Amino acid sequence: MTPASLRSWALFWAFCSTFSHSSLAQNGGASFPFVLPSQCGPNRFYNTASLQCSTCGSNQSRSLSGLQCVCHSGFTVIDLGSPRVQCSVCNGTTSLDQRRCLQCLHGRGNCVCGPDQTLAENLNDLTASCVTCPSTLVGKPGTASCVLCQETFYAVSGTCTCPDELLLGGLCFNDTRTAAVQGSVPPASIWFRLYLDSSFLACSIYNNATACQLLTNMVLLDPAGENSKAFNLYNRASSQSPPLQFLPQLFYSESLSLEQTAPTGLTFLSNSQINLKVVKFDARGSFLGWEDVLGGTLQLCPDTQQRLDAAYLFGTTYLQSCSIAVMELLSRYPEPVFYQLFLKYRDRQGVDMVWPIPVQHLNQVSSPDGSMAVRRFFLVDGLTGRDRSVTQQPLSVRYLSRLLLRVNVPTSSPAATPPFQLLVEYNTVNDPANAVAQVSFAVTYSMSEEDMRRGTAISLGVLGVLSLLLAMLETSSWSQRAGQQYISLTVIVKFLAFLIGNLASAFFLVSFGTGVYWLIAFKGQRSTVNMVLPSSGGTALQVIHMLIVQVSISIFLIDWEKPRNAANASAGLGVSAWRIFFVANEWNEIQTARKLNPLLQLLTVLLILQVIGVENIASRDLNLVLQPEGARYSAPTSPILRFGLNASVWLAVGLAQVLLYLVIYERFVEDKFRQFVDLCSLSNVSVFILAHRCYGYYIHGRSVHGHADVSIEAVRANLRREEANLCALRGLEPNSDIQTFEIALTDRVRQQLDRIMLSLAEASGARGRSTGAEGPQEPQEQTTKAYHAMKYFLSSFLEHAHKDMDYIVKDKLLLERIMKYEFQRPVERTIFYRDPDGVSFTNVLYFSNELTLLLFDTLLFCIIDLGSQNLVLAAVLTYAVQQVLDCLRYYISRRNVSEKTLVDQRFLI
User: Fold this and answer.
1) 818: exposed, middle or buried (Cβ count in 10 Å: 0-12, 13-18, 19+)
2) Which of 360, 371, 356, 379 is nearest to 50 (CA)?
3) Which of 150, 637, 792, 831 counts the highest number of beta carbons within 10 A?
4) What digits encode the pLDDT tens for the residues 70-97?
5) Do residues 308 and 431 lie in contact, with contact meaning Cβ atoms separated by under 8 Å?
6) More confident position, 876 or 310
């Protein structure tokens, strides 16, 4: 080839490259129509760089492969590896290599040779004649054609030989010095030594499409990334002017915004298949075609077709990992195959489009502008690690240890991140014969959490302020009930306890609401999918605070029974003590009674979640299958869905039990607490309870019949009289049947109680210090005197015997009942607030604190399950904690009742 022809050839390619680059720049990373090589017309070839059809030049047509153009018959061709060739008309006979036009010596026009002949060419005078093909030529003797030498040899030297200093990778170049750039090369890789420089030179000088693909692949194969020579050569090639037409865009350009190029209006139905396609290239840069991404295309771990395909069901979070021998990977991929991943969809005009999914190489190359988005990746590389021959066993193997397809929702309106992203991470082993690879494949879904975080922050802010105000109100109420006049350390501790408990309830409400919201919003998507899942010790403290208050109450039993005659009284024969023992035992029994059965609660929750299979709804997919098939892929569980589901089921079962107790069991089976009030009336014993220093509860148990220590016949007769309204009502007030009250004591009454209780404490201390056989007698007498003093004072106080320590009975205002706060302070007289429901005293028992206990059980069960992922273990541990708390509550309260009521623990059974 003459220098003049080379100059004209360069000008031609400059024009073509400029035109092609402008079209690529317009397309960039945006969607483009999906076209296969077979769909290109007869005068168009398939451009493997742009993946679109391009027009052949004049006098050219598509080759059989469809990947390049060929000259028509009668035209000479200049083919340096570019899909577009240069054709010139020939009025005579074209040479065997179609590089020259020759005149036939046997006549004018073309030489038509026989089947065993070939053209004998005289390139000096450009003539040709038909002769028998010599057997010494390279090729098969006796055929009608002879094997030609490499095209670049003719382009450089005009012969079939190339000087050694100009020969690289089997190609001949005018100058090889342009391949000298800074950067590292894998030292033990014959592949890089043979083809790195030649691929750059062939791509940049000859516009060889295969060489451009090969150069692009080498950038990915070199683990040095941006410090490698391949990276620098690619940058030099991509910065040439005019731009190279057939050099693929490996990196997203600095001005290319991924979200701007992503398709808008892209929607998916529930459990619809994501239509993904890959275009493949071999290690040498040859185009291998398009392929659907289905089971096993990108997954290195073996599995069934159904489970592999489940990865591409939209909305299904997928996770697969396994250990696989490196030699098995090499048998499947003896040479690396390079992939470009695309999303195929149909636009509004009904045209099939593909959108390139950006790839982030987490530990390999980075683009010139520092970003990590590229367009190509591979699965296994056993080629780079070969030192002496490309056919030997590799010394090292690189494999894709982690592949993550990340989907950002909603896909219809891309934001700062594109709707689809592929993250890949590689690992290298140096002993492939004995190495085992750990690989994983995952598909995750995410969405912008700004709105959710803003809503959560607002909710927590509002509930936090309300918790603070409620804690201040509760502290003020407690201070008033406890008779606290000033802010002390005890008041501060109480405030913190109330505040932490309220904040714990607020946090639970927000967490539970978030879990239920995502459970309904995510699992309820049956048409277009627009959302996916986002990526408490306070309640325990609240329960502990409640227990401390309940086990430290002051309780007194007032026996109204009088001796039947003066003789018994003077003889020291008092009334029977068994009624007091019986009431104390019954009080001890009802302290831990609840509206729900904990064992039934656990068994029902396990039945719903595990036996029925409701727990499977918490999977990270859009399925609502309770019992999935064994061969079907099971998506991993979402913690937020699992929490929302478990908490919902636990609370639903608990609230259902409470409702059944209040509506059915309490009315038609047994009402333990109102029965306790009736027992007090039958026993002629009142119960005086102080939960705080100046606040408590009173159960009026004074018998309307005068005596309770009577025969069974007399008891029955008394009950019949009550049924027939032949006696007074049981209430504290005349003509009233209200027996339970909330009481707010004055300081004067409380001081009197403290003086009596002080003597009781001194007697108890003296009794504890006594060791002799005769020692306990005097403290015991002192205790008995203190007991009678307390009994006398309380009974006389209730009978209005103390004018300076009197009381009034009134109803609580509606707002006082709601806020649990008394607006009127008892200054001159103690206030008894009527309790029409008859169960206000259960505030110092488990019964009226069911909500706090239910929330504690719910959080305990959910936290253990989230940590262990085992429902049975969570249920067993939750039940164990419940039983431990019940036992502590029972035995500590039993001791407290014994000390306060002076009933020996031996009689509390």
Assistant:
1) exposed
2) 356
3) 831
4) 998 888 888 888 888 888 888 777 776 6
5) no
6) 876
